[in-house]
Amino acid sequence: MTFIHRLSNKSIRFKLIVGFLLLVIPLQLLLIFDNYYGMKVVREQVANSNRHLVALYMDQIDRNLEEIDKYLRTMVAFENDLIKLDISAKVNSDDYFLAKINLFNKLERDIHTYKEMDYLFIYSSVNKELITNQPSDATMEQLKTIQSGIIRMLREREDFQKQDFAKWFPYQINEEYYIVKIQKIGDVYVGAWVKASKLMIPFGLLDMGPEGKSLLVTENLKPMSDNAAIANKNDYLEVSTHSKQGNFSLLFLIPYSVILEHLPFLQRLWYLVILGALIILPIFYIFLRHIILLPINRIVEVMRRVRDGNLDQRVKQYPVSFEFELMNDVFNSMVSEIKALKITVYEEQLFIQKAELKYLQLQINPHFFLNALNTIYNLAQFQNYQLIQDMSEYLINYMRFMFQNNLEFVKLEDEIAHTRNYLQIQAMRFQDGFTYQINGDDSLSQALIPPLIIQTFVENTIKHAITMEEPIRLTVDMELCGEQEPYLCIVIQDTGRGFSEEALVKWQSEVDLADENNGYIGIWNSRRRLRLIYQSRAQLTISNHPDGGARVAVRLPFVLKNEN
């Protein structure tokens, strides 16, 4: 019975199969003939039409060059003898000579690790002296030619900055091209040097045909090979890819005479395929629209209304396929069940949200209380009873506010009073090493905000910004902002060292910093609390001020007590 339903004329399966066969069978018959002839042409041209080889070979070259570049960067970073070459040899000739020997031995030893390279070199611009390895297969005349070419190349680039040597670049000596990479430290240049023709050795294994060519070219598409003369470039299909590591490209030249051998016939054949598709596809589209697209569209429209919160919507009954009838019935039943469960689920979510907020509010640093008690103890030793009374009053007010952990919102004036108590305690503790200022309009005092939002970032300044080296100033600015909808904007800024670049990157990428032992759990908790309370309506921005110091900007919906 089920099988009969699936293949009945109301079944979408039956309709899709019939429609698909009506579309595919004519095209398949045409494409079988076309593919048969096309495969014959492809088999004859497979060696020349495999264009992805260009990218594969260039990736291999780039990987080799990248390994050498890493070696050069490592040498610049960790080789101490390079620093001695940046000083005139007249200052300490013994150290300079010993550094030369060490570096020469290193080049002679390391060149065997990178067989793709011809030369590794170090040039001291201060002393006008070049150090290179000495290949065993190179004559003295060849070595002198290369060394003079390296020196000439470096002198031409003495005014270049470090970033100008970011990539490999081609350089020509006589009729030979070389690919060069340079790392600069001070006035010392460390580099690698390889013949362009040496990089092309693996391409000798490719079957490019009698007239096909593979070659390296400069950015101006000038060939870097002696045998790269091309009679007429218009006779070739050019396939190239640019190196990711250097200012050069790999170019394949494939003769059109082979590629276009049977192209006219193939073009006419494909025109027939396209014409047939243009005729059949509209008909098939109308067919699919009636049996599939319209029923799906009806369901989608109702789904959108349900997604917007209108749970009274139902899919109306139309003459449709058996499968869509079942989908409509199941969907309508599901919406009814969702509507019945919505209130229960919503109440459970509110309960969980409030529980998590309470947990986040209770995560308080105990070191603050210990430091406050220690300060009172020190004041007692000096019998400064007035300051003891002030400190005790600040601490009592602070603790009274903290124990009110059942509050979801507090007035801004209460949060500011609590924050001021905390800052007064810290000001008494650090004396002249810490000052603060709180700026805000009194008209904002009745605004409702989550408790401890301001105090959390103020506490972060105390933890990370205050040192014994220089005084720190903290400011809290509050104002009303927003054009269409009013927002409360709070900016907490200090004159300390600011956030580390690593912390800022992780914050912008929303990496969870609470699991790391870095002292940023308070910031993470604040972001979590704001999302739980406001979803996407609140905004928290962490940055460093251009003049120095950390800057935290909090943007909250402006809500007064009588509006809540």
Automatic annotation (TrEMBL):
Keyword Metal-binding appears in the UniProt entry: no
GO molecular function, one term: phosphorelay sensor kinase activity
Keywords: Cell membrane, Kinase, Membrane, Phosphoprotein, Transferase, Transmembrane, Transmembrane helix
InterPro entries: Bact_2-comp_sensor_kinase (IPR050640), HAMP_dom (IPR003660), HATPase_C_sf (IPR036890), HATPase_dom (IPR003594), Sig_transdc_His_kin_internal (IPR010559)
GO cellular component: plasma membrane
Subcellular location: Cell membrane
Membrane-related topology note: Multi-pass membrane protein
Entry keyword annotation includes Kinase: yes
Ranges for domain HAMP: 290-343
SUPFAM superfamilies the record matches: ATPase domain of HSP90 chaperone/DNA topoisomerase II/histidine kinase, HAMP domain-like
Residues annotated as transmembrane: 12-33, 269-288
Protein name: HAMP domain-containing protein
Source organism (scientific name): Paenibacillus ferrarius
Lineage: Bacteria, Bacillati, Bacillota, Bacilli, Bacillales
